[in-house]
Amino acid sequence: MTVLEQPGSYHPVPPPAWRPRVDPAPLLPDAEPHRVLGTPAAAAADPDLLRRLHAQLVLGRRYNAQATALTKQGRLAVYPSSTGQEACEIAAAAVLEERDWLFPSYRDTLAAVARGLDPVEALTLLRGDRHTGYDARKHRIAPLCTPLATQLPHAVGLAHAARLKGDDVVALAMVGDGGTSEGDFHEALNFAAVWQAPVVFLVQNNGFAISVPLAKQTAAPSLAHKAVGYGMPGRLVDGNDAVAVHEVLGEAVRRARSGGGPTLVEAVTYRMEAHTNADDATRYREDDEVEEWRGHDPIALLEREMRSAGLLDDDTSRSAQEAAEAMASDLRERMNEDPVLDPMDLFAHVYAERTVQLRDQAEQLRAELEAAAEAGEENR
Fold it and tell me: Signal peptide: which range, if any (predicted)?
């Protein structure tokens, strides 16, 4: 008989603070990704929504193709294509109200364009011109974020501040599966859940963090399961099913706006093209895998459903393609114009009020520019 088995022995019990603060069961994601297209639930989908999503998906596919072409022409320094992931991009923009904020990652230029941002302005940062390329406050779109996951704490901070001010605002933060391996991801989710901030986290799980497959990043059952550890619901959705993504994100946004707190949504999708134009995806994935995912293309899935419901015919499809071509032509023409750059813009949008150091540096640059201009006039 051990000491603990003796009558009247002391049995240590964890204090009450150890006990779960919430029931974890409702927070767990479903075993399979949520789907609408190809299921009986598709019959209840709003026809107008399907038409809008289709038009935006076709536009988005052409936008990705044109931006990729611009890199080959030297008009863009780099472009991370979201081809294959357009359903996530379009749905993310569609579920937000004008007063809400979008916090994109570097691959989410399409989401910014779908929210109303000028396509050229969306590419300015990737062009290497200056700053963000657009007024973040005007468009309610945070700067396209190149460092992994740093936009997530920013989204939580804005959402928490808006709630403290009494503003009816929701922040939707987008990140890739690779970003979930960053400390910023943990910090953002933890703060969001503790503060019950009105923020939605959308993880686009496209299978790879550049060349690192998901299995080498995490041993979790899914990325959506990570939500439980922070005390928020985790949702798993088919990221190529535009209607399902719109439905899940819409529910999460409404929940956040009504005071229900944050939600982590994992959209299972696939990056059809390389990480960027500088990447060789054939080094870490097989062509057969890519071809298998082509059979689950988000545009094809939606078009199949719409045609079977009598919502899409050849004329409608042609109109969507023509609108996309018109957008691509305008983008191509405007991106082929050399921008007029002002070196003094280096000091704009850094601080609301310039520091002494910035004022000194600005004056030094201005003097150098004036001297160079005078020298140029003398040499004519």
Answer: none
Q: How many domains does the chain have?
A: 2
- Same domain for 322 and 355, yes or no, is no
Q: What's residue 22's pLDDT?
A: 76
Is it the case that residue 231 has pLDDT exceeding 70?
yes
168 pLDDT exceeds 60? Answer: yes
pLDDT digits (tens, 9 = 90+) for 347-357: 887 888 999 99
Catalytically annotated residues: 271, 275, 284
Residues 135, 218 share a domain: yes
Query: The whole model's pTM is what?
Result: 0.90
Please indicate, yes or no, whether residues 374 and 301 belong to a single structural domain of this protein: no
Average pLDDT over residues 37-45: 97
261-305: pLDDT as tens digits: 999 999 999 999 999 998 999 999 999 999 999 999 999 999 999
Tell me: do 240 and 285 sit in the same domain: yes
Residue 168 domain-assigned?
yes
- On whether both 25 and 71 belong to a single domain, the answer is yes
The dihedrals phi and psi of 146, each to the nearest 5 degrees, come to -85, -45
